[in-house]
Design a protein that fits this description.
This is CbiX/SirB N-terminal domain-containing protein. The protein is α/β, with parallel strands linked by helices. It is 32% helix and 18% strand. The longest helix has 17 residues. Bound molecules: iron/sulfur cluster.
């Protein structure tokens, strides 16, 4: 049995941020090479602290879904997963045994050599008849002074594609460092130029900064006044959203596993938690704000406050993904980074099989079954606030300065809207969903939303209109 975990950044503010990781997870599930594909996030749930607990097998490969190495892949993710590793990840990855699971943490997908094929695929989409007679390629990176590895990857891809012989010229240019993208008219001689942004997704840079710096007016732009005019520039979509990235992820995962044979076993604690939960569900149960009712060999899920409403008055959802996407926003359309906040939208019902139920409940309340079961069996260890505060790095180091009163002030606001009980603040929880109390959910450790709000409080910026931080 083998589990694949994809790690994304996610966002407290914007529901689209996690979308790319969801899509790749779906593509990889369809391929069926892993018994499960699980997503974990820095700013959403399941969080990096929880995600390994939600995994079914004892053989786990973790892939950071980032385009380049940097602060998140080298500092935040290894720290939060508890890998006991900081700094550059070696090419063979980092292997650890954590809680009885063999965990392999790899480099981010963006540094894999197979990304050159993805760049070529993007170039071909923009210019199908590209050829070595008259076509130049520009691999366009962000460039940054903070992490030299991010530029190295762009140079390496440019080098591989130069050697491939598909292009007359190949250039590596950058937005934020030399050689800059604006210098392309001097650098490129060929009459046709394909530009492939080495970026994770469409965004401000790919939609605005790059076209502006290059003078592009659309996907195809004619230039009559460059030193080597006439020239036509073909602007490709960013590499990070290409479906072939799923293949790169699989290659990376296979390489990380190396010669390690047949995979692991089913994780016993995980299996016990879900068996106990399914036994409850078969009789009909509630978890958080959701009501689960067995119905003619299937299960119906709906908001508990919609109990008794006629099915015809509710929107019927029939897939796990449909339910997930519908419940990622509250009724006002706002993103729900913390699923146990009491804002599950009403007005829907989902009809699912027993095989689908665990993933549906996982999406509705990530890690809640596993953590509630651990608490029920006295195996959930709480992490007190000072420990969480000390662990923070980067812009969050300042939360260590928060007084207990400030933390309480923020928690009164944020956590009072949440179903969870703060074990990390010394609160006690005598029951759980496993003892028949659907809203009794343990919070073992302050979530990243609370940490971010405490940071705002310490900075004196909390509650300011339009203020929000998402790094
Ligand atoms: Fe909920 Fe507060 Fe725990 Fe975050 S820290 S999950 S808001 S109880």
């Amino acid at each position: 049995m083998r589990s694949l975990v994809l790690i994304g950044h996610g966002s407290h503010l914007n529901g689209e941020s996690a979308g790319a990781v969801y899509r790749y997870a779906e593509l990889l599930r369809e391929r069926g090479l892993y018994d499960e594909v699980v997503e974990g996030y820095w700013k959403e749930e399941p969080s990096l602290r929880q995600v390994l607990r939600t995994v079914r097998s004892t053989d786990v490969t973790v892939i950071p879904m980032f385009i380049s190495e940097g602060y998140f892949t080298e500092t935040v993710i290894p720290r939060e997963l508890g890998l006991g590793h900081q700094g550059p990840v070696p090419p063979e990855g980092v292997g650890r045994v954590l809680g009885g699971k063999t965990v392999r943490y790899t480099l981010p997908y963006g540094v894999h050599p197979a990304m050159s094929d993805v760049i070529l695929a993007r170039a071909r989409e923009a210019l199908p008849d590209l050829n070595p007679e008259d076509t130049a390629l520009i691999v366009l990176g962000h460039g940054t002074t903070r992490n030299q590895n991010s530029n190295r990857v762009v140079y390496e891809n440019a080098g591989r594609l130069r050697e491939s012989g598909h292009f007359a010229e190949v250039h590596a240019l950058f937005l934020d460092e030399d050689p800059r993208v604006g210098t392309w008219p001097e650098a490129v001689k060929a009459s046709r130029v394909v530009v492939v942004p080495f970026f994770a997704s469409e965004g401000w840079h790919t939609l605005e900064t790059i076209p502006e710096d290059m003078g592009l007016t659309g996907q195809v732009t004619e230039f009559a006044d460059t030193p080597n005019a006439p020239q036509t520039v073909y602007y490709a979509a960013p590499v990070g959203t290409h479906p072939d990235v799923a293949e790169v992820v699989l290659q990376l995962a296979q390489e990380a596993r190396g010669a390690s044979g047949a995979g692991g076993d089913e994780d016993r604690t995980h299996a016990q938690a879900w068996e106990a939960f399914l036994a409850l569900a078969r009789r009909g149960t509630r978890i958080g704000e959701a009501l689960i009712t067995p119905q003619a060999g299937m299960f119906e899920l709906r908001h508990a406050l919609d109990e008794g409403r006629h099915a015809a008055d509710l929107q019927t959802l029939v897939t796990v993904e449909g339910l997930r996407d519908h419940t990622r926003r509250d009724e006002g359309g706002h993103h729900r980074p913390v699923h146990t906040l009491r804002n599950l939208p009403r007005g829907w019902r989902a009809i699912l099989t027993e095989a689908e139920l665990p993933r549906a409940v996982h999406n509705l309340y990530p890690a809640v079954v596993e953590e509630s079961y651990a608490h029920h069996t006295h195996n959930l260890r709480a992490t007190p606030w000072p420990t969480t505060a000390r662990r923070q790095t980067g812009i969050y180091t300042k939360v260590i300065r928060a007084t207990p009163e400030q933390v309480e002030e923020v928690a009164r606001d944020v956590c009072s809207r949440c179903l969870k009980t703060r074990l990390w603040a010394g609160e006690r929880l005598g029951s759980t969903v496993f003892s028949g109390v659907p809203g009794a959910i343990p919070c073992a450790e302050a979530c990243t939303l609370l940490v971010a709000e405490v940071r705002e409080e310490v900075s004196g910026k909390r509650g300011q209109t339009g203020h929000g931080h998402d790094h």
